[in-house]
Amino acid sequence: MTPPDLTAPPAEDDLIDLVRFCLIDGVGPRTRKKLLERFGSPRAVFEAAPSELREVERVGPKLVDKIRRAPEEIPAEAEITLCREQGVEILTECHPAYPRSLREIPDPPGLLFVRGTLLPADALAIGIVGTRHASPYGLRQADRLAQSLTRAGLTIVSGLARGIDAAAHRGTLSAGGRTIAVLGSGVLNVYPPEHQKLADEIASRGAVISEMPPRSQPLAGVFPQRNRLISGLSLGVIVVEAADRSGALITARHAMEQGREVFAVPGSVENRTSRGCHRLIRDGVTLVESADDVLEQLGPLVEAVPVENGQTVRHPAELLLNETEQQILSAIPAEAMPLDDVITATGLPVPQVLSTVSVLEMRRLIRRLSGNRVMRL
Questions:
Q1: Domains of the chain
Q2: What phi and psi, each to the nearest 5 degrees, are found at residue 119?
Q3: What tens digit of pLDDT does each residue of 241-262 get?
Q4: Where are the beta strands (DSSP E) in 236-330?
Q5: What's the rounded Cα separation, in Å, for the pair 167 and 141?
Q6: What is the enclosing helix (H) or strand (E) of 275?
Q7: pTM to 2 decimals?
Q8: What are the angstrom distances between the C-alpha of 11 and each of 18, 184, 246, 248?
């Protein structure tokens, strides 16, 4: 069987089947992917013989029974109706708003339930995570970094938990930016409950998302799983404070497995919530003191991302550029171009162009070639 087509939105019946399929207890992202690769569609999975289902890796008799009973027992139509009544959007992998970055991780969610809006500019995102038992220092750093990265033009992703997560969301909102909260419960059942107002603010300026049905209860086993979405949505993850067994370290591990950058904020050696960050730094992750440390470390984007000023960004480090640096970078194409042509195109003084080209090269945005030529990376 060929994999399902991800280029067209599903019809209503197909959406019902997909929602029902994704809500089967025991069918996680990897099993869902294997079943779809084998049978081609949720409907074909439901219609498959038990012997055929058991041929799929990790599908045993108990899961076969759940799959066979799903069409009668899982109220997918009611979930879809609830979402439409409550303004919750259901994003399938073929939906244009489904983040490309999540499609590329090994275990993408089959569905995303979204309050608010996901935008193309959210591809420029950084995760900020840390302990629920944050120190005043940790809360200040989360707020400061969130505000600085927001002003640079990035979306901030976190998990709406107490402590560092909430400080990162609030810092972003206070700076007038966009933030995404990834829940381990349903988007209509915010956890912790005292963050309901914060979730409403986030939904109005960004998005609150979950792969769980909208009214799902928060379950301990779900939170490590949701952490892969925080890292998956982000170009990199900053750990602000984390004890030795913090969930933030799980997010950092997911980020490494997904090929994302990992950053850590150093703290006091007397504070146990600094131990996780210090261990990450000893293991070689980037120590962070400012937003510049983050932007300079991130690599080029898979595809250009549109930003608010109408321009497109190919590399996060472009967000650090001043007006002159941006003008000169825009004049340099992806193909090799004589430096004299860059000077002519910009109309700027030769010394200014030469010094700026050196800055752009240092930031790994361009490359100098032989014959006094340059090209954009």
A1: 1-74 (1.10.150.20), 114-297 (3.40.50.450), 321-376 (1.10.10.10)
A2: -115, 155
A3: 999 888 899 999 999 999 999 9
A4: 236-239, 261-264, 286-287, 305-306, 312-313
A5: 9
A6: helix 275-282
A7: 0.89
A8: 10, 28, 42, 38
